[in-house]
Amino acid sequence: MKRSIILFFISFYFSGIINAQDSHYWSQQFGTRSALLSGAVLGGTNDNTMIYYNPGALGLLDNSSISINANAYRLGNIRVENALGQQADFESAQVGSVPLLAGGMINTKEQKWKIGYAFITPVDFSFKGIARLEGNEDLIPADESTGLEEFVAEAGVTTKTSELIFAIGLGRKLNENWSIGFSNLFTVRSHSYQRNFSTYVFMNDEERTLVGANQNQNVEYYNVRYAAKLGAVYRKGNWSSGLTVTTPSLNLFGNGTLASNIALRNIYLNDDNERVSGVATARQAELKSKFKSPFSVALGTNYEKGRSSAGIAVQYFSGIDIYNIMEPTPGSFVRPAELAPQLQSDAFLRNRAAAKSVLNIAVGYEHKLNETISLLFSGRNDMSYFDDQLNEGTGIKTTISSWDIYHFSGGVTIDHKNSSLSLGLLYSTGNTGNYEQTGNFDPNNVDLVEGTTTITNARYSNIGLLIGYTFYLKMFSFKNEPEN
């Protein structure tokens, strides 16, 4: 094919808040001190983030009326090469904020059990990208159209995924060394996804025949699931160790909508050398949804000596086999039906999920400068659980990130009599050379319906500011109050 490229990059836009990724378990850390230590606190820390990290440590809290609030403010950048071909990359720079955790302790007359609650934001991911190309390429066989054909190609993705966990945990101190507990984790997940890809080519014939196609995919659902976390802490001397086990999630309820539309104009679909036009369209609403989180086990230890302390935490997440988030039913898809009567809507509407097993490790260090001010530093890996098998077959693939991330943080805590202030810097980076990018425009392999799929590079970086407050004040009380 003649390669005389005259390609004009007309417009390019990409924006989004990338505070957490959509295929990672440790994108966010929660609380004030715990977040600056990257969650390396399984041996316990004196605030109610233990509801999430290790409910076994709740029984060891000195204060039964803690309230905590932490927010992260971030500037993120992401780059995906060859978003619409070799001349166009997706690249972003954006500012956003995430409320990481808000919660407190409930004061009851039963002093043996400590009860806490928390609202946690483990996932808050949004992504919006549009890439557009137009120019002249040799795309149509010379017997139909001589010379270079004028073309326009555009691809766009908009997605938002968020999760909110409501956690209520109980812990009890058994003796001077042991404490146990468990947390109930109710997770509300919402997800919306829209993708479009269009290509239009004008033939150099007398009629200036338009050849083109456009594809639109839409997914929207919410889901509520439950999981339980069991924890235990053992303390002796300067050492404190913790173990947690989190059950696989139990699906409670949810529903959503799937839609896919393809429109073709003067396209070759088979070997009979006849250009045809048609549409393939389907939409199914009020489908029951399910989303799964895996079994996991975590082990960690903390050591304190003098003004310094250090911690390490390791967490294993099991894999999840491929499943359908919603179950579309077979139905008519292509119209006129004689173009492809064998194609049914369920194959093109299916939205699958899966997770490969991952192992994450966090280390943290704290040094007290004096009775009031402490310095904290930490790092952790955050391996992507994206399963490459999801790239195979038809359907709607909604996962954006598939790269491993490494997080680093450092900051200071300032303690007062009844409160504590935490300030810190957060930095994250990740990349992959094996990112599968669909919807490319390749002049050497023209697929006007779905574009081509290429293996390319993707890079991610994020810098943020953590601001957290811990108040040692009474929030609620279930004790009997004297009557007036």
Radius of gyration: 27 Å
Helix content: under 10%
CATH architecture: Beta Barrel
Task: Please give the count of helices.
Answer: 3
Distance between the termini: 92 Å
Q: CATH homologous superfamily, by name?
A: Outer membrane protein transport protein (OMPP1/FadL/TodX)
Provide the succession of SSEs.
EHHEEEEEEEEEEEEEHEEEEEEE
Model regions low in confidence, pLDDT < 50 over at least 5 residues: 1-20, 83-93, 439-456, 475-484
**Strand content of the residues, in percent?**
over 45%
Give the strand order of the largest sheet, numbering strands 1, 2, ... along the chain: 2-3-4-5-6-7-8-11-12-16-17-18-19-20
| Overall body shape | elongated
Overall domain count: 1
CATH class: Mainly Beta
Largest beta-sheet details: 14 strands, antiparallel, barrel
| Number of DSSP-assigned strands | 21
- Taking all residues together, what is the mean pLDDT? 82
Structural class by helix and strand composition: mainly beta
